[in-house]
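Hey,

The postdoc asked me to send both predictions to you directly instead of through the lab channel. I've kept everything plain text so nothing gets mangled by the mail client. Protein one:
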Amino acid sequence: MIVKICGIKDLAAMDAALEAGADMVGLVFFPASPRNVTPVEAEKLAARARGKAKVIALSVDADDTLIDAIEASVAPDMHQLHGSETAARVSELRTRTKKEMMKAIPVASASDLAPLASYEEVADWILFDAKAPKDATRPGGHGQAFDWSLLKNIKHTKPMMLSGGINPGNVASAIETVRPDAVDVSSGVESAPGVKDREKVFAFVRAARGAAMEKAS
């Protein structure tokens, strides 16, 4: 079970994620998020993780200028596109950066899964997240889950990551229901928006790995 801790914005949080054994660490480049970091701020965070965990750069409908700045300062292992990027844009950025792409699909009902096939043609990973409330200023990080049973028998050709409202207390249930390749957490391991709680980070990784071992046995 691959575990991703997202929304890391300081070295203490990065160290907690790495020491807990996270496989991926996410840096958010979106000003409306309480977890936002600039490419310059993110440089030292990425350097800390290099060789220990994959660095994932999350952006929301970013233009080429921001993508290029992220590449120059952070050189992430993968870009996570969390906005309304089209399949063509995913493909374009994959060519531009020569990096893996993860495309987020917001889910509230079965009809929201319709774009899956087109994104699978151009992305390396698919992330399913809870659809944001209508008045939200950002597409994710709200701590809300969606009906995981919608993904129970979904057919997919690319690795699948589950996000949205997952925390140390329910990650085992999420894994049992969806059987994803990876789980992603941000607000579920925080004491306040943007503030990672070291104990919650460790508890999340333990619970996810424990559930994955139980699934495999």
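Protein two:
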Amino acid sequence: MSTRPSRTLEVFPNPAPARDYTIRIAIPEFTCLCPKTGQPDFAHMDLEYIPDAACVELKSLKLYIWSFRDDGKFHEAVTNEILDDIVRACSPRFARLTAAFNVRGGTYPTIVVEHRAEGWSPAPMVSLPPAAR
């Protein structure tokens, strides 16, 4: 194979650092191993973040996510680890990672972890009326 999993997250300069905007990335094929049984665990992850000076490069994110395939990790641990690594790589103003794991033992666990940069707060929500037809 010419491509291999990697724990390196690459970044590139934010093209609009003066503006708060949201980047949403669906990661539908996350896999790791159950640390108790060794069986595969599958999850759909959603990453949302507001970049500051840098954005995460998507191919490196794909290879990074792939690198967990053979790791035995509890759902809570792996979700927190991934968000910590993303924060370390690009220092976003805000980041949220939602990991919705497939059924295991009759349960569907969803883990949601967040990061807020010190001193950052979101702009007030704007509520617009429905568009006229």
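Summary for protein two, as requested: Strands lie at 11-13, 23-33, 40-50, 54-56, 94-101, 110-116.

Thanks,
C.
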